[in-house]
UniProtKB/TrEMBL annotation:
It comes from Dyella halodurans. Keywords: Membrane, Transmembrane, Transmembrane helix. The keyword Heme does not apply. Residues 6-82 form the CBU-0592-like domain. The chain crosses the membrane at residues 6-26, 33-54, 60-78. This is CBU-0592-like domain-containing protein.
Length: 88
């Protein structure tokens, strides 16, 4: 089996999302924390890259879910940054 760069991007993306969720459940990260949000956004980007470049036909439901995951994560990052600025 040959692995291409987009395969690795997808596997690393899945690993990032799962690790973020595990760390959240272990109470090592906060759901509104910047590290959790960045892990989710980067993970979803990796999965999107594997979906775009890795298959002959697009898996649209998976793609749309990842795009929503990215949008929500970016919203969380921006919201956390604004909150942190206000608190300083």
């Amino acid at each position: 089996m040959t692995f291409f760069w987009h395969d690795w991007a997808g596997y690393i993306g899945v690993l990032l999302v799962l690790c973020a969720f595990l760390l959240l459940q272990l109470r090592k990260l906060h759901g509104n924390g910047i590290i959790y949000q960045v892990m989710n956004v980067l993970g979803a980007v990796g999965v999107v890259l594997s979906l775009i470049f890795g298959v002959a036909s697009m898996n649209w439901p998976a793609f749309l879910m990842q795009v929503a995951w990215i949008a929500i994560g970016i919203y969380g990052i921006v919201h956390s940054a604004r909150l942190n600025r206000r608190l300083r």
